[in-house]
Amino acid sequence: MTSLIKKNASGHAGDGDANLLINEVVGVPGGIGESARLGRASAYDTFLRGLLPSREGVALIAVGGLGRRQCAPYGDLDLVLLHAGVPGTDELAASVWYPIWDAGLRLDHSVRTVSEALSVAQDDVKVALGLLDARLVAGDQTLADALIRTAADHWRRTAVRHLPGLRAVTEARWQAHGELAFLLEGDLKEAAGGLRDVGLLRAISAAGITDALRPAVRAAHLRLLDIRDALHQQVGRRVDRLVAQERDGVAALLALEDGDALLRRVAGDARTISHALDDAFRAADRLRSGRSRGGGAPPARRPVARDVVEHDGELVLARTAIGARPDPSLSLRVAAAAATTRLPIARATCEWLAAYCPPLPAPWPTDARAALTTLLGAGPGLVPAWETCDRYGLVDNWLPEWTRLRSLPQHNPVHRYTLDRHLVQTAHEASRHAREVERPDLLLLGALLHDIGKGLPGDHSTVGVPVAQAAATRIGLPPTEVELIGTLVRLHLLLPDVATRRDLADPVTIASVAESVGDTGTLDLLHALVRADAAATGPAAWSDWKGRLVAELVGRVRTALDTGVLPEPPTPDPALLAGPLPVVHLTGDRVSVAAADRRGLLATVAGCLALHRLEVISADASVVDGRALVECRVQPRYGLPPDPVPLRADLRRAVGGDVSVTQRLRGRALAARGGGAAPRVVWHREAATNAVLLELRAADAAGLLYRVACALDEAGALVRAARISTLGADVVDAFYLVGGWPDDATRARLEAAVLAAV
Description:
Blueprint: H1 15-26, H2 34-49, E1 58-63, H3 64-68, E2 77-83, H4 89-102, E3 107-113, H5 114-123, H6 125-131, E4 135-139, H7 141-177, H8 195-206, H9 215-235, H10 244-253, H11 259-292, E5 301-305, E6 308-311, E7 314-317, H12 319-323, H13 330-341, H14 347-356, H15 366-376, H16 382-391, H17 394-398, H18 402-405, H19 419-430, H20 440-449, H21 460-475, H22 479-491, H23 494-501, H24 507-517, H25 520-537, H26 544-563, E8 583-587, E9 590-596, H27 601-611, E10 614-624, E11 627-636, H28 644-655, H29 659-671, E12 680-684, E13 691-699, H30 704-714, E14 719-727, E15 730-738, H31 744-757
Helix pairs in contact: 5-6, 5-7, 6-7, 7-8, 7-11, 8-11, 9-10, 9-11, 10-11, 13-15, 13-16, 19-20, 19-25, 20-22, 20-25, 21-22, 22-25, 23-26, 24-26, 25-26, 27-28, 27-29, 27-30, 30-31
């Protein structure tokens, strides 16, 4: 065959030319779905048969996707040229491989005898798995059958021994690629729950360990293959990572509503596959454990809860529970037993519960409520038990709202889980704080329901209240507790929002929070909930400084609720009020400056900190005994703290009016302007004492506080304090402007100055 394109250094054709060449040279059809994949496999087979001359003792074997007849539009060809020691094998191999490369196809190839192939498979479990997909394409049928039969028999005899090592390799891959179900841009092949894991399930089934390829798994596998087909077709080349910019196009090719519907499908299928693989690995562990016991007496049944017993490391139903009319709370009680014992529920038990356990009445019986509390408070055992029940549809019986929440993506980059998993994870994290509150049961339920309004139009903290209260009523809570659940949902963001965006020394701030919360019991529940919510969200959602701010707010509000008296604002550091000016103190995450009173001091300090790559979290400006004081909390922008010696020197020079420092920080800060969505200014009239609040919502950028503070100063506003809240790529910066409510013209002028600075 004449070479039609120039191969790259690896011998592979460029992806950009592959579509044309595959269609014109090989005649491989495009398209999405099982019939399209079979059509591609047939076309490849026809093409490859024309490359291998009829010769005894030689066979062309397909493995991988072609071996399974599951060819992606731009997948590799995995081929083995099998021979029986015939002469001229190298030349024969070249006559097969080069036309494949010339056709623009990616090729993974090897040339081996049967004994060589089996020897490699014995040493490399990945090769052994690959041979399970082996299929003759052309050549000597007897030779091919010898390899295929022997490889399959060898795997059946050695699989149990090889699986622990294979599991370790698999877990390392999961660690590298993450969980497909919870990734916004996951690798459809390599991530946990992806296509490579289906290969493991197929291998475990081939070994006769368990029926790992159940109908739900097969359906999930076919859907993931369809998604990969659509991704290849959308991008026009081989790619396995479903990136954000391709989601809507892939969804359209699959006739799905939008990219979110696609993500939900991927997440659901990946979780089905992951759960099946966990179950299959446990079956292998049980089989290996039984063999180590020498095939003696069967394991005993040990009661662990009412109607629940342990059998061979799994939870199953007691015989009396199966024979009697099922109790509607049975599925919840089994789940609670699994969570508290950290033992998996047997597959057959889950299937029986899904088929025969009757729906829960409204309101729930006492046993069901108690079981739910036990389940939610079980700690680390909650998540796997809940996930198992969800895979079999049991959770929908408990909470009909779960259908809407299941696998709903959360596009904020700080979130590491889909919405449903986030809610369960929050309940798990809340169990760590159960002893800090008067009603741990309401904390756990509030944690499970706190984001139930997401996915509905409007503010989820508001629209979620009636949904959560309806669920709490159905569960059987009395009206006062139902109302409290609604309060937790409505206010679950109050403490972190106020702590990071408002002046905690201002009595108005404390009075407003105290009025919203109402009592110390609710305050404790909200404090526990916010910490659990942040821990379940991801590491970017919480930090030591945010924890300190929230704790400070809670302490001040508690004092107000206990005594009815608003706490006094903290006094300045006495060291700032003594000694010659300027005074600069650097202590941990605090930067404190005292200088001669003048306008623009806050902007100068903020700019100098930006010059040294420090982000300002909060800033306070005041005048005491004729001294201007600026106190800031900071954190390094890029993780590494600056050298304190030049920082202190620059601060002294800058607040002392050194023009060279001012010019240097102005130039650098202005060069650091960020992009992003259009900024917005929001005014708050009664949120502060003797001040109004200007809130800026904009894209994050180095030096932003400096530029805005300069703009406000030049526009004639006096900034008393600033609070900076970073939310992913955006910030919400609150500026306390001294004085009364400005007129319309003044507000418009200040707003224009701020937006121009951004």
